[in-house]
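Section 3.1 - Work completed
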Amino acid sequence: MGKTKRQVTGSGKPIVCVPIIEQKKDAIVKEVSQLIAKQVEMIEWRIDWFADAQDISEVKAVLVEIKEQLEATEREVILLATFRTKQQGGQWQPEPEWLRGLYQMLAASGLVDFIDVEYYEWDDASALIHQLQKSGTAVITSHHNFVQTPPRAEMEAMLTAMAGAGADIVKLAVMPQEKEDVLQLLGATSDFKKKNEVPVVTMSMGTDGMISRICGEIFGSCITFGSHQNPSAPGQLQMEKLETMLTYLHQSIVK
């Protein structure tokens, strides 16, 4: 599957997605400009870091300026909008109906390519995903465990459940307690990829899990997250160094 504004390839060299975690509008817009200049392929705006995030109209105003910058460049840059809740490692915990309203605005606005939906935080995740997709916006369904790494079979089952809900891409991030946990995640990723066509994104966090952010092409993970200045998650690598490593590995694989 090739990459367009609403598609991410399920094979080959992973795309480096760079999160923006600035708090002020001007800083966010400036960061987008810098990332465009550095020719990034994918940007994630972490809306939960935005100081005025509680005002959905202010969120939309920032997105309008981001969109203007993206449309002014000749290169295609994918934009992912994420509100990470406190329960999943984000900055604060909104009321579910407020968050649903944010998702609906994002989908209806046409200003973003992907919306991140935390699968296990919603009783009606499948219905919510399909509702957002009807507006033409793709959905990444995610789950984050900052405490531990579940057993391999359980992680594969989580990915399968998220895929079964109709997500365009499924994402799982876990925390290793020991180095062997990283191998369990990579195994679960490979197992899922062999049985499913849905693109998958996985990562093992922290220092022990850094290797999982590099070897996605081997095990099937199609996006990896790299930082510009400040990491948004433990173990996140600097984006340009990460891109260099991914390119070298890809060239070695395809020879």
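Second construct:
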Amino acid sequence: MSKLESYVASTTEVDDSEVAVQEILARIPLEKLKKNSVGIVACHYEFDFSGVLKSIAEALPFDVVGSVSSAQGTQGGAAVFELVLTVLTSDEAEIALALSDPLEGDTQEVVRTAYDEAAGKLGSRPDLILIHGPFMIQNNGDDYLTELSAASDNAPLFGTLAIDDTEDFRCCYSIHKGKTYNDRLVLTLLKGVEPRFYSAHIAPNKIVGDPALVTSSEGALLAEVNDRPIAEYLAGLGQTSLDDPDYALVTMPFVLDYGDGTAPISRIFIQLTPDGKAVLNGSVPVGSELVIGSFDKEDALETTQVAIDEALAQSASPVDGRPAVMLMYSCIARFLALGADYLAEIEQSQKQIGGKIPFMMAYSGGEYCPTELTKRGAVNRFHNNALVICVL
């Protein structure tokens, strides 16, 4: 049996703090909370501007962390203007939080210090690190992952970079104790839990062309594949709308194979620079292989269905008992691929999951999830264009 219990509450009351607090409290039996509890929130940034987020956090007897999202949902509903709160509570599992200093310049020391602060409260390596960060164009989400994996001896890392619906991403806030930050990382470390992980990105039949070897790159800036400029390679595949960021973001993800036997992951292609380099939302190591994918609404819904079916099938095991909760983050590119039917992925998930497991789903500017668990620790990855799932 899971050592955690969970309660999921939501409200669409974005203006009236008193009503919103009443709706949340009505769905959380405070008298049943265990010794250790934390609330994980996903909400539109208007809940911060109106003061509703702060009021809810202040009304609860446990800390609230999380992230802003462009849409979110649970069994009870799905909306853009919604606040979803998932409460994890346990007498056995331990919980520790940390808020980083501003993520400016070299982030390694900042991330390491935040991790050490939270790990120090536990006294040993966590069984799970939940990460909520701001989406910052100047920072590479892989850098946070690299430092946290090293600091924790490859403890499993799961979570999201916040995403909003503004044109300049000015409200991509992480949330710590009800307060919002556009430049700080929030960590929740759990000890005494056994998480399971699942992910979905691009279906194999959506791959275009043959694999190409990455021969020149720096971080998230891809210069050459097969010793050819990336712009020349893409043009050879008939990709003619490379100067349109919306086209690249939604329809043309890269699938990246690290070449080490681990599962491939997806990378969003943001745009070409004036000198013909591809800007991706995540690192592209030299020596890895990539292929171009073609992404649309149908693929987003089909791959989501497969991942959730797998999670539900394994979670139904009578040996382990009923899990406490399913946490899910889906890339903003999947949201955009849905077009006018922008809540379809959440609504499909509601129908699939039903009342089997309490769940929370929110959109993301970059997803953290292991691709596998080994005796040496988790193989943590920073994903794009993916749905990631953690079952606890």
